[in-house]
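Deviations from the work plan: none for this task. Representative record:
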Amino acid sequence: MEFSSKLLENAVNEMSQLPGIGKRTALRLVLHLLRQPDTQTFQLADALSKVRAEIKFCKSCHNISDKDICEICENPKRQTDIICVVEDIRDVMAIENTSSFKGLYHVLGGKISPMDGIGPQDLTIKALVEKVKKGTVKELIFAMSPTMEGDTTNFYIFKQIQGMDVATSTIARGVAAGNELEYTDEITLGRSIVDRVPFEASLKS
Amino acid sequence: MEFSSKLLENAVNEMSQLPGIGKRTALRLVLHLLRQPDTQTFQLADALSKVRAEIKFCKSCHNISDKDICEICENPKRQTDIICVVEDIRDVMAIENTSSFKGLYHVLGGKISPMDGIGPQDLTIKALVEKVKKGTVKELIFAMSPTMEGDTTNFYIFKQIQGMDVATSTIARGVAAGNELEYTDEITLGRSIVDRVPFEASLKS
């Protein structure tokens, strides 16, 4: 792509480093910004620089936070003896949206994935194990995505805390609400039969 | 969407103002930046601010440029008496890529579109008409996209320069290279028969 301006080329190149944004999309976005009042661009640039420079991670759960301890960990109404282990902050947001969990979180910051060069030492697993070692945690809920990497990560943590006095559980896998049975994959469907729940219990939720 | 950090929320909000980028995508992009070395974010922010603050538009053709007159207008090898009228800078880039045009451009900066509140006064049509009035331009090539708005814009300019000593042409419309005849829409196909070219002439290109 030939640009008539170095400034434009530079902006497009930087923009196209973002995942899922190619050169053409980057050019479209930059040209859009050029047509808008300049304050929009400056606010965007400022917000990005600020979040990158000043962002903190909660020292307890590693969730993104403006303070040293995040609002969830700080909240006295939350149960501190049950910890939900998630991959990243988006999962915290998704679970918080359901309003069905009142414990604390532990954000791993990724999942074990040898293909991407991510090992246990790149995640916050050590801090989680230390937390469990203290003995105040009664239950760990593994809430990783049901993929190969998610399962590996769950299993790795499970091995690390073996012998410690903590219960472990994993989020239920089954047919999603609104899905047709005939289009559900066999692993999920099989699992949903093995893990069936008493009908009366299912009426409560 | 509930954020655990105001800084993050702010960055996501600014990012999601870009066209085609919703809140979820914006969050994914910002979280990606947070995982990268901070220089990447700072370079992106800097490049965007710079291009917005310092960008110039060529005083002659209104193409984006780092200088007052762009490289194409400055180039002594280009034919100055033939002007290709395009909607925006991306069209200049697309036509330059074909290497088949050696004249100058005139970038309108949009197309007449009452639906979007864009009238002739929002485009650089007046400057184009002034250019033609000087009498040095022999031919105007209308190279707008073949849409209702593109056609309207072409026709508006055509009316403005009527009576002046300048030839006008429009880019050929027809079946695109590699397209199957049976899937070509009827307007295009009809046009391609009316505007047929001598077979020998078609062998040259």
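Chain A has three domains: 6-54, 64-171, 172-205.
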